[in-house]
């Protein structure tokens, strides 16, 4: 099934553009932050106050890189949305089923593509962290690499949400608009309103949970003191896994029940 998906994608130009855009933007942003960091640290008068804000040496480079990479989840999400929605807009999903595929095979082919896209973006992040860390002085260290697992789960939650919107809405532009609006504004608005009645419920919004898996590398202790009732890491991991499973299950239910 994945081989057939590859045959569909290999001649699709937006696929290659988006696949190239992720490492280009990731490495570009890292380069800018590294240069900015060294520029600030190079000023002795300011060094004591800002040094370590975004450290790029081992072991803290793992956290810094994953945090910066979390701003680019929308790129693989756009790719997943296009991959799913194009099947419905051009009716090629019907041809797959006429050729003998079951609905389950078609769904798991799309789920497989989403999984591969997640792993590819994860691999770019690991490579970027390694290169940036090796560029700086200091011994190589695997300490702190647990944040990579958190990033992988975070990315999977975002991509599973894109998968759900693709199977539910089936229109590329509409799905993309809903994804961008929800991820940037709507979730905060809806869960903020709900928090008026249920004070802590905002901590359990899907993308809020995913985002807190890789928090800002600095001021973590201060944030914990300001929000003492926020879920701990173990709870966040459990909730993220639940949301991931829920989005995948709802995607399958949407596709299984809808007319072709």
Can you tell me about this structure?
It is a single chain. With 260 residues, the chain is mainly alpha-helical. The chain contains twelve helices and no strands. The longest helix is centred in the middle third of the chain and has 33 residues. About 4% of the residues have low confidence.
Q: What is the CA-atom radius of gyration, in angstroms? A: 20 Å
Helix content: over 70%
Largest sheet: none
Shape, principal axes of CA atoms: globular
Structural class: mainly alpha
Q: What percentage of amino acids are in beta strands?
A: under 5%
Number of spatially distinct domains: 1
Q: Main traits of this protein?
A:
single chain, 260 residues, mainly alpha, 12 helices, globular
Short structural summary:
The protein is an all-alpha fold.
Write the layout of secondary structure elements.
Blueprint: H1 2-9, H2 13-41, H3 44-50, H4 61-69, H5 74-89, H6 92-98, H7 103-135, H8 146-169, H9 172-197, H10 206-212, H11 220-226, H12 233-257
Helix pairs in contact: 2-5, 2-7, 4-7, 5-7, 5-8, 5-9, 7-8, 7-12, 8-9, 8-10, 8-12, 10-12
